[in-house]
Amino acid sequence: MRSSALRAAVIVILATAAFASPVRASYVIERGGRSAEIPSRTLARREVVDLDAAARFLGLTLRRDRKRLSLEGERGTITLQIGRAAIQVNGQPVLLSSEVDADGGRFFVPVDFLTRALPRFLDEEVHHDPAARAVRFDARAGAMSCERFADRLRITIAVGKDVPAPDVTSSGNRRIVVLRGVSLPETAACDLGETLADLQVKAGRDTTITLVTGPGFGGLEVQQVPASRSIVLDVLDLAAEGPEPSAQDGAGLPAPAPEAFDTIAIDPGHGGDDHGARSKDGLDEKSVTLGVARALARKLAATGLRVVLTRSGDETVPLTSRTELANRERADLFISLHANASPSPDAFGAETYFLHAEATDDAARGLAASENDATGLRARGQGGGDLEMLLWDMAQQQYLEESSRLADSVQRELNDLLGTRDRGVKQANFLVLRGATMPAILVEVGFVSNPAEAKRLRTDAFQAQCADALTRAILAFRDARAARSAAP
Amino acid sequence: MRSRRIALALTALLCVACSRRGGPPAATPSPSAPLVTDAPPPRRAATLLWPGSKAEGLVARDAEIFATRDPADQARQVVGLLLAAPPDDAVAAPLPGGTRLLALFIDERGTAFVDVSREASSGPGGSDWELLAVHSICGSLVRSVPQVRRMQLLVEGRQVETLSGHLDLRSPVTFDEGLLAK
Which value, to the nearest 10 degrees, does the dihedral of the CA atoms of residues A142, A148, A152, A156 take? Predict the structure, then answer.
């Protein structure tokens, strides 16, 4: 009896150990002729790899701010959060198969971080060999990339085959490189600094790259690198002790652009068939929002900002189309204007909303569920669409902090204008905010259900005052943001 | 609310009547073993969250529902009470008068699918109303029926984007405690 109990106990202990203790192993990463072993372990039947080791191999800096992790490098930033599977690669949402883990001061990510997130970040092709536990990254054939070094700007073109030596010619401040037999499908956005004034790429059967030299141009070196089947253009910086650039070289050069903030998307809520809330004496929310939006557009345009209106007349515009327009126009802010209503005629005052963080978490959970249920998605015949929608739903997540700041700025100004009690900044899962890839807020300028407020909201003068308050808030937000980026 | 209670009482009486019809004459029950079928379903406490009349947020009111076995039936009773008249003047009806509950079921993940008639979309509009309307139902269900964790609102059997142009109803709503009146 005792021995069988002992045997059972041993079996239980062994079984527990087999499942609970992490199995240590490694994954091999190869890139650019280098390779490294990235430690991995199996936790709860899923394999995770050491994020710190992967970051070191790729030359990325890993930073931690409470639960938020960021990997920073020349190609941008990957943002992760401990306990979440949704990450952002240069602002684009990517969903991993499991959450980011922290254990003993180290961070772990599922293996698909290497195979799904990194190729997107590095803009390279990935070759995954699960049996060999190896992941290799190769530059895409035809891809162009730029890297800034201490003394040069390096432009690398992965040609993926043997090609003749490039032709290089010079004409005034132009250096023209022709790559015979190379059709370059992708061009890169390069930070030209002062070395180049412009970089033009004309692709066809051959590819012609025109470099317009800048005041900091110190020469051009062109090499073929057979090992990686690539062509490297090294645009050298002018040595510090070198001669002053000629007037011709420096003519008409734009100053390095500060962080852009030039386009505001204004969304007059409702419209067309959807009149929105309606006051007892027939004032429609859709006309109040359009009136304030037009006044705001005029005032912002007068400050030099570009304004995009999601509707300029009494039109029916779907909610998702409004955000899509702002995204397409690369707006720096999205401001949805509304007027409130309540069953209580006593309710009054302005409110400013930004997206509830839970909405983005729900989207992540929904995406995880969808990815885990590929059969269900196929059965509905819209797998790609659903996934795409859920990914866009998470887009606002990375802007929540800035959206909150913008909401504060707007609410402060509206409180001053209305001189009423502060209804405050709030968060809600409003559909029109979900897909915005910029700081986004929804402003309720007042209650049409309150007779006194409805009377004011109807007038051009009050709509103009609202627009003034919003303009002040937007400019204050812009200035505060610029001050934050300028701070060391 | 009173009419709802009367309806429930009539249903209970009908059940009792049905159970007595047809079968062989019942033996005289012993005093220690009363006929369970004769007892009305036990009641239990529920918490209904109503929009406050002063737009101050959601205000809790105690209520009673029959402790029936099926959680979906309990959830139907909760929504039924919210669609009836509010208990006092300090709180308001979440959905416009005439809105009916068409169907309600709870899935294995704790999502209550609440299908209401088209009148639900004809409220006064405004984000305040919409937030309080949806979360009044969601919060009352979550607080009163332990099996409910979130709510998917449907109108006339269909998923809708929003009720009046604001709150995203394309996916289940999780109750937002921040909407409770301070």
Answer: -10
